[in-house]
Automatic annotation (TrEMBL):
InterPro entries: Chitin-bd_dom, Chitin-bd_dom_sf. It comes from Mytilus galloprovincialis. Residues 464-517 form the Chitin-binding type-2 domain. Gene3D superfamilies: Chitin binding domain. Residues 68-89 are annotated as: Disordered. GO terms for cellular component: extracellular region. Signal peptide: none annotated. The chain crosses the membrane at residues 107-131. PROSITE patterns: CHIT_BIND_II (PS50940). This is Chitin-binding type-2 domain-containing protein.
Length: 517
């Protein structure tokens, strides 16, 4: 191979491609597939016809542009393809995959530990809640554990327990009898304002929706009963929260609702209603909200007798009681993670009204069904009495016992409670078809509560043929009073009432002040 030295215009290191070593490398490439060796990472078996192995290239080899010359050998080099092979990039990829796997493993381990810790905390809270609830139930139930000292046989111990149960049954029996006496309330109906005394004062009982109580009958003691162990009074159970329902009435000058906390283990105490909120902290700081101008609050401490325990009392003071003061209260205290509370009500009562209002049609015509309604505010929240219908004629007596006159009368009764205004409305309706025999009869709606003025209705029946002699559209006076008049139409009769202090004048067919009776 010969070159013109004057025409050489290239770096000296390119002379490598003129030597024998480069020719051997070309022959090696001709008989070997380096792409498979680089991709698979293994060395393929060499062609036995190749006498010399090529040099091994490590790490990275940068390829430069091929020299611009031709060899004098008849062998032509293969086409040149620039290539960049990086072994370190493969290692970097493996390192990145390893780091990803390691980070994922750490995340899963941390997530598992967090889940286990959270589950343990929930289980601990549930156990703690049931433990507190059980302790609270035991405290509220006031159970006394009986300890019998000394050496007794099995029969003696059984006798002692039976004697203790007998005392408990006796106390329960007496308490139930006292409660049973207050279940029935008897009242007598008041006489209506009017002449005649034609009804009987019979006691009536107020119905109740309470479930009947089970009265335990104590065993009859015999002479052979032996007290093996003297009974000793058990120490009283201290309730941590004392609250009870309070009853008051509309118009009362002052009402007080209070709650007592009997424990030293509290961080904050509260008394809450629908709008009223009163909080008392350990540092004797009060936070109050929702109070009306008529409502205030108060609190006080007192040392309980025979102990070092303090008693905290929270009070809500109400002036000039109104219906809106009725409320459901919750009183309790908080100690760390536990809360103890009880409920109580402030019940606002309303006295029954002093009279019964009547509602009836203007005219009562023979043969046409009539409804007469009596309405009475019977007291709130529980009505004190009911309405009874009476009538007065030649016989007189209770309307439901009338033999002939009101035999077909239909009586209905309903009650409506308005909690927003603290009123209870009692409505009673009597429905009947009037006859001429009922004329000039007086109906009374009487309350079973004393001191209530009865409602009265004077039955004046217009005969059904009263307008037969009239033709067309005509006016006639009422047959029994001048304060009403009848308008006779071709198909019916209409009854109207004259204005106050007027009477119907037939000659002018209108109501007038003249000749007022």
């Amino acid at each position: 191979m010969s070159f013109d030295d004057d025409k050489i215009d290239r770096p000296a290191w390119t002379l490598f491609f003129e030597g024998t070593l480069y020719r051997r490398y070309l022959r090696y490439l001709k008989h070997h597939d380096l792409s498979q060796m680089l991709n698979n990472g293994t060395t393929l078996p060499c062609n036995y016809k190749t006498p010399i192995q090529p040099p091994i290239l490590t790490h990275e080899t940068s390829w430069y542009s091929p020299p611009k010359f031709q060899t004098d050998d008849d062998e032509m080099p293969p086409p040149y393809h620039p290539r960049s092979v990086s072994v370190s990039s493969e290692r970097s990829q493996r390192d990145m995959d390893y780091k990803k796997i390691r980070n994922r493993t750490r995340f899963l381990v941390c997530l598992g530990i967090t889940f286990i810790a959270l589950t343990a905390a929930i289980v601990a809270l549930v156990i703690h809640y049931f433990y507190i609830a059980t302790q609270k139930e035991i405290i509220e139930s006031g159970q006394n554990f009986i300890h019998i000292s000394g050496n007794f046989t099995a029969n003696e111990t059984l006798a002692i327990l039976q004697d203790n149960n007998t005392n408990i049954i006796k106390e329960k029996y007496i308490t139930d009898l006292r409660d049973a006496e207050h279940e029935l309330k008897f009242t007598s109906p008041a006489k209506p304002i009017g002449k005649g005394s034609f009804w009987k004062n019979e006691p009536t009982s107020t119905t109740t929706t309470k479930k009947p109580k089970l009265v335990l009958i104590p065993p009859t003691p015999t002479e052979e009963t032996v007290e093996w162990y003297p009974s000793s009074p058990s120490p009283p159970t201290i309730e941590p929260v004392l609250i009870s329902d309070v009853e008051t009435a509309i118009g009362k000058k002052q009402a007080t609702f209070s709650c007592i906390i009997q424990t030293n283990k509290w961080d904050s105490v509260y008394l809450k209603g629908k709008t009223i909120k009163l909080n008392f902290t350990k540092s004797h700081k009060t936070i109050a909200s929702g109070f009306l101008p008529r409502q205030t609050y108060d609190y006080g401490f007192k040392l309980m007798d025979g102990s070092n325990m303090t008693k905290l009392t929270l009070k809500v003071l109400i002036q000039d009681v109104q219906c809106e003061d009725e409320d459901d209260f919750v009183c309790g205290f908080k100690d760390n993670l536990t809360t103890t509370e009880k409920h109580g009500k402030l019940i606002v009562q309303r006295k029954p009204s002093t009279s019964i209002k009547m509602k009836s049609p203007v005219g009562i015509i023979e043969g046409q069904v009539v409804e007469i309604e009596a309405t009475w505010k019977g007291g709130y929240p529980t009505p004190i009495g009911n309405i009874t219908w009476l009538y007065s004629d030649d016989e007189g007596g209770n309307l439901t016992d009338a033999p002939q006159t009101f035999k077909a009368a239909d009586l209905s009764w309903r009650m409506k409670i308005r909690e927003d205004s603290c009123k209870t409305y009692i409505n009673s309706i009597v429905k009947f078809k009037p006859t001429l025999e009922m004329n000039n009869t007086i109906l009374y709606a009487v309350s079973s509560f004393d001191g209530v003025q009865a409602g009265t209705e004077h039955i004046l029946v217009i005969p059904e043929n009263y307008c037969d002699e009239k033709t067309g559209d005509a006016y006639k006076p009422h047959p029994y009073t001048c304060k009403k008049f009848v308008r006779c139409r071709p198909d019916r009769m209409d009854v109207y009432e004259c204005p106050k202090n007027t009477c119907f004048m037939e000659d002018v067919s209108q109501c007038d002040l003249l000749n007022y009776e």
